[in-house]
Design brief:
By secondary structure, the protein is mainly alpha-helical. Helix content is about 50%, strand content about 5%. The longest helix has 27 residues. The protein is elongated, with a radius of gyration of 37 Å.
Length: about 220
């Protein structure tokens, strides 16, 4: 009996001392995951372009409002009898600067944007710009604000323009109703294409269709 117990103990020691073969290590990389999920096929490219379309539309709208509706520095244009062709905001020489100091009032080192003196005499009276305005174009260029004159007396119209632009965001309130009726995919696709088309056409109009400063 004792010999049988010794044989069993020796058999267990030998079996535990033998090491099991190691399983081969498998490492999953990102390329393997992409390969299993699917590479950039037609469906992936459509989704990628669609997501970029939304961002491009938002960027165009922001670009138009910031630069197109910006309010650059401006001042009254000198009368042709005083300085012909007064088209530059900054003085072109000392004589031009002298006339601007005589006829354009200043405040805190800046020219008044909407008034000028009637004459260069001691008894000066202010009037609104009778000879249109001269805008500073080095930063924003030719803006929509300059084109239709959204400054001085017509400055509240610029606030109305901003209000109308922001009011367009309330159209998302009916997006849920349209999505329930036509489906989410069709609704978001149609809305994105519509916004992109409007913004793109607006940019083309601004760049290629000339706008006169007398246009009201």
């Amino acid at each position: 009996m004792a010999a049988l117990v010794d044989n069993l103990c020796n058999f267990q020691e030998e079996s535990t001392s033998q090491s099991l073969p190691e399983a081969p290590s498998t490492t999953t990389t990102l390329d393997d995951v992409i390969h299993k999920c699917g590479r950039l096929g037609r469906f992936q490219w459509r989704q990628y372009c669609f997501l970029n379309l939304i961002q491009i539309s938002a960027g165009l709208a922001s670009f138009y409002y910031v630069f197109g509706a910006a309010e650059p520095d401006h001042r009254c244009r000198l009368a042709p009898s005083i300085w012909p062709n007064d088209d530059t905001y900054t003085p072109i020489n000392r004589t031009h600067a002298l006339f601007l100091q005589l006829y354009i009032p200043t405040k805190d080192g800046k020219w008044d944007q909407c008034h000028l003196f009637v004459s260069s005499n001691i008894n000066k009276s202010l009037i609104e710009c009778p000879n249109e305005l001269v805008f500073e174009r080095s930063v924003y260029g030719f803006t929509f604000t300059e084109a239709i004159g959204l400054v001085c007396r017509d400055k509240p119209k610029k606030s109305l323009l901003a209000t109308l632009m922001q009011a367009g965001g309330f159209l998302v309130l009916i997006a849920g109703i349209l999505a329930d009726k036509f489906g989410r995919k069709r609704t978001i696709l149609g809305a994105s294409i519509l916004v992109f088309s409007i913004c793109f056409i607006t940019q083309i109009i601004i760049q290629w269709i000339p706008m006169s400063i007398n246009m009201k």
